[in-house]
Amino acid sequence: MHGDDEDRTDALFQALADRTRRDIMRRVLAGERSVSALAARYEMSFAAVQKHVAVLEKAGLLTKRRNGREQLASGDVAAVRSVASMLTELEQIWRGRIARIDELIASDSTEES
Amino acid sequence: MHGDDEDRTDALFQALADRTRRDIMRRVLAGERSVSALAARYEMSFAAVQKHVAVLEKAGLLTKRRNGREQLASGDVAAVRSVASMLTELEQIWRGRIARIDELIASDSTEES
DNA sequence: ACAACGTACAACCATTTGGTTGTATATTAA
DNA sequence: TTAATATACAACCAAATGGTTGTACGTTGT
């Protein structure tokens, strides 16, 4: 029962299901950004952006590092890859379906009575 | 203005941010499944599963085909790939960051005064 | 010392989400 | 024709989400 895994996957997709958070990810993957530097980029309040960063951090998509009074956020590419691998798993399932269809076609053409 | 693109991406990640819907995707990527065949697999009500299927359909992750009184759902691997490519874009941004860091290291070692 | 800055978090609010039950409609089986 | 099956959808509900303002606290600059 890897229900924890599912919890984590829920959190990852949920975190990425918001355009502001995806945009934050683009910035923090490009390099470290302070929370206020990020907040300056969006129309919403500082608190709203701070909460988005917290959601991304909780999901493991970014980490924070203190530097004086600033908190520097940095994107975690391994987490991004773990989401990608979940999608690869889905694609593999689909490949299995295609393989089975191909088999059927092959056996049909040999069973031609 | 690719706001529609972002809407679609929101819907895709949102749709995949639920473990029941991810499980449904595994099944419909493996082959066509009727809504009631899917519903039989989960503890929740038929209506709940039907709504999950509707969410996946709206996001473009599956399509339905009528067959008598049944509605056969089939996973769309292209939609899955489009999510994956969004993640690849993020990974590319990160690669750029690494490349820039490498450049800095290289110039540092030549600028040694 | 004190003002400004950067961050965190609580309280609140409207909307969305994930579930329920109940009803309606079309298709198939008896 | 009538009963059972498969689907869709409305109405409702509790909880989660994405935003707000206000407050508190540590850090930095004057």
From TrEMBL, chains A, B:
Which branch of life, at top level? Bacteria
CDD domains under this entry? HTH_ARSR
What name does the UniProt record give this protein?
Answer: Metalloregulator ArsR/SmtB family transcription factor
Q: Which SMART domains match?
A: HTH_ARSR
The record ties this protein, via Pfam families, to: HTH_20
Q: Kindly indicate where the leader peptide sits in this chain.
A: none
- Give the HTH arsR-type domain ranges: 1-95
Q: InterPro entries, from UniProt?
A: ArsR-like_HTH (IPR011991), HTH_ArsR_DNA-bd_dom (IPR001845), WH-like_DNA-bd_sf (IPR036388), WH_DNA-bd_sf (IPR036390)
UniProt xrefs under SUPFAM superfamilies: Winged helix' DNA-binding domain (SSF46785)
Q: From what organism does this protein derive?
A: Rhodococcus chondri
